[in-house]
Structures are given as C-alpha cells and as structure tokens.
Design goal:
Blueprint (H helix, E strand, L loop, with lengths): L2 H14 L2 H6 E7 L2 H13 L18 E7 L3
Antiparallel strand pairs: 1-2
C-alpha cells in the first residue's frame, strides 16, 4: 500500500486496539520491503522517541509500506 493508505490503516488499527495492546506493542508504518523494514525497526527500537510516522519514508525505496506491530522492549 502507499504511504497515505498505510497511515489510514495505522490510524484505524490504533483506534481499534485495546489500551493494554498499545502499552505493550509498537504499531508502526514500515517499508514493505523486508530488508528495509528490518533496518527501520532496528533503528526505531534504539530510540523510538526520535521517530514519527514519516520517518519510514527515508528507509523506503519503492513507495510501498505496511503497518506492523511488535512488542516493546522493557
């Protein structure tokens, strides 16, 4: 999906998610390309506060995105 579609999908996912899910998991937009997504998530987990939804754009080379969730580290 393109970035605009991914942004809408993330918004809907966050609205539907239970508060406990939001406390335990990051819900982020990443590049659809596996290698680019891996690099984005790796950098994101080092300092999540430095990232926003548009941060994924600089990791993406083909304009294709997806919304993923993964457990927050303690």
């Amino acid at each position: 999906m393109n970035y605009k579609e991914a942004l809408q999908h993330k918004k809907e996912s966050v609205e539907k998610a239970d508060d406990s899910i939001l406390k335990l998991y990051h819900i982020v937009i990443t590049p659809a390309n596996t290698d680019e997504s891996y690099k984005y998530i790796e950098d994101f987990t080092k300092n999540p506060e430095k990232f926003n939804d548009e941060s994924c754009k600089k990791y993406c080379t083909d304009g294709e995105y997806e919304v993923v969730s993964f457990k927050k580290e303690n």
